[in-house]
Amino acid sequence: MKYGIIIHGGAWDIPDNFVDNHLDGINNALKLGYSLLEDNNNAIDIAEKVVVLLENDPTFDAGKGSFLNALGKVEMDAIIATDDYKIGSVAALNNYSNPIKIARAIYDFDGAVMLVGEGAKIFAEQLGFQQCKVEDLLVGRELERYLKIKKDATFVPKDAFRRKTRGTVGAVVLDKKGRMAVAVSTGGTPKKPPGRVGDTPLFGAGAYIEKDKLGVAATGYGEDLIKALISKRVLDFFDRGLSPLESTEQAISFLSKNVQGLGGVIALGKKGVGLAFNTPRMAFGVQTDEIDSFIGINQKDKEELSKQL
Ligand code: ASP
């Protein structure tokens, strides 16, 4: 493969009435990403722009549409990284419309890999990023969900993956000059404890990338994805000679067997594309110089795409 992009919109039990929104959101992001690729843009700029579009789409649990934590606040995590081991990551960030832009600013700053909470806010303010109001990120249904599960003492964040809900966004890009980038953004899990950091901003867990190999982005119940070091694990299988598809499948099988985790991964590099998930659904889209635009959400869509991989 010379160039391409793969996107995910969360691995969860996405409800039927949200399927079209997910497919539309992924389709819009894929169109944007692929047209930027064809216009010879840089992988990192493409990954950032695609994730900004998905953060602005209230369908997904990232930016606008983020879940509320146990205190009814929005705390978001994001990461952006390239295949030269440059990383920018942000965690437990309140009230910014596009956390991925702040992750990108940390990437460009180069004086830290990861900033959290208050420190991230100070950094963002210094660069002129404006905080938004929680209402700007809050979609009515999330307030309703929060009020409902707040009263439910038996609800734990992992339940969200078993009950009908939705998730994080991520993209992996290989550009025409052979540069690779990965970007992921999330509002985390519903009713998470304040200060909880998931897999997303952790290099090796929520995302991983190595030159001339693969870029990987994960989604799912973050606590389990961290235990499995899921994104790096995909590369471990790839290094043993497996294809990108086999590497993602083996990593998800490890997640299921060893930590009883729930989630999905997408991967892309010169050797091709891979994706796997053990949740009922994961919204995804892929397009490369060898694969026509393909959008899917069910396991059978993944099987269909796998025939081309
Ligand atoms: N992995 C994210 C987290 O646990 C959630 C998701 O992928 O939807 O924060």
TrEMBL record:
What's an example GO cellular component term for this entry? cytoplasm
> Which positions bind substrate?
R196, V197, G198, D199, T219, G220, Y221, G222
> What are the leading ranks of the lineage?
Archaea, Promethearchaeati, Candidatus Heimdallarchaeota, Candidatus Heimdallarchaeia (ex Rinke et al. 2021) (nom. nud.), Candidatus Heimdallarchaeales
According to its UniProt record, this protein's enzyme class is hydrolase
Q: Which organism is it from?
A: Candidatus Heimdallarchaeum aukensis
Give GO terms for biological process.
proteolysis
According to UniProt, where does the site described as Cleavage lie?
Answer: G167, T168
Gene Ontology molecular-function annotations: asparaginase activity; peptidase activity
Where are the catalytic residues? Answer: T168
Does the record carry DNA damage as a key word?
Answer: no
| Reactions catalysed according to its record | L-asparagine + H2O = L-aspartate + NH4(+)
Q: What is its EC number?
A: 3.5.1.1
Q: Which InterPro entries match?
A: Ntn_hydrolases_N, Peptidase_T2
Name recorded for this polypeptide:
Plant-type L-asparaginase
User: Which keywords are on file for this protein?
Assistant: Autocatalytic cleavage, Hydrolase, Protease
